[in-house]
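Hi everyone,

Forwarding the result from last night's run.
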Amino acid sequence: MSGAGPSGVGGDAMAGEEEEGKPLLGGQDGDRDRRSSDRPVSGCGRVASAMCDPRRWPHRFVVLILMCFLGFGSYFCYDNPAALQIQVMNDMQVNTVTFMQLYAWYSWPNVILCFLGGFLLDRVFGMRLGTIIFSLFVCVGQVIVAVGALVNAFWLMELGRFVFGIGGESLAVAQNTYAVSWFKGKELNLVFGLQLSMARLGSTVNMNIMGWVYSRVTEMVGSVGYRTLGISLMIAASTCIFSLLCAFIIGYLDRRAKRILNKDQGKTGEVVKLTDVKDFPLTLWLIFVICVCYYVAVFPFIGLGKVFFIEKFNFSLNEASLINSIVYIISAPASPILGIVVDKVGKNIFWVMSAVLMTLAAHMMLAFTFWNPWIAMCLLGASYSLLACALWPMVAFVVPEYQLGTAYGFMQSIQNLGLAVIAIIAGSILDSKGYLLLEVFFCACLCVALIAVVLLYFVDLLSEGDLNVTAWKRSKLQAVAAAE
């Protein structure tokens, strides 16, 4: 889920570069802000308290907390199937191919919505109403999934995942738009890092708590079965309801800030023109190939990983859940740190190649050895974070600013298409050939990604591009280009 997944990083970069909204950080508006902060604020009495004043940091801190929790429910419920893989397959009596449809149906709507999410927020709903609507889709979708389990109708669960997917990716775009609207300035990268960490926290908590929830529901009901599964999934829906409440509250606070500060409603900054696709350079198409071939070896694996660790390494359910979530646990603190390192050093192609090689090594260890899987999964978590920090910003280096919206939208679209297709293929391989052949398939995908990275290096070198230069040299080249 990138963003929901996996695709949110591109939106962060684009929004941060294109949004021209008014900064709201303390101290950036000089004496005018300090004078105005002494005036009474409507609804808070004669003297505006810091907690009620949108110009003060305590108020912005409250907004930041709400902003981070906006996507918590979505990320928590996205990997419900992975956390309950055994229970879903047994209680609903489905094979692995059918089980993986729960991930495919999430991705299908986002093949299109990646192009429309920003447009709907900017031109149709507005940021506040759009955020609430997308949160409602997430809530309703999760409830439909739970009801589908309660009535033993797997097709209804698939429908619920489709509805859930409509809201999930677009909600991430709305979350980024709020961040830019309130925190554009020196804190913006920190805010994006905190949002990413909260997303990973949601995924981690899901992986490690849903099995326990299912066990408690089993004790309450008295037996396992589809009703137990449905109740467990309905309990998970409470996190989506909590995020929906956050959407209402932050919408109210943003509207109130508009009234007090004459602040415009945030815009995504996305301008999508499909005619720009014909002008995309070869380097961008290679970036697309790397993106798809890399992520299809990560997210489908996590979706199927719990049973893999139980069957191959004889882990308990709790141990398998914990190790399957290690990718998210590591990426939560590592992503902001690695992002700073990549920004300071440059040489993005080098980092991307390192990430692909590390991930390939992790999958080969899992496939061909019986080494402690903690080694491979920690390596996978670090490489996953590194690739996200190095790959997505490269888009901004190879296309002009007016094409960024189209480029990121297309990148997210084909990523979701790849995830939907590979989820079904992975389930089919597992059912017919087993985990060893599935790991070989993931290794093959990563080899294609590695070939694309090597080609990207030589194409960039021959075209005298700046994808693999140092950060200092890149800034110098950009300054010369701007002067010309």
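Residues 359 and 380 are 5 Å apart (CA to CA).

Cheers,
N.
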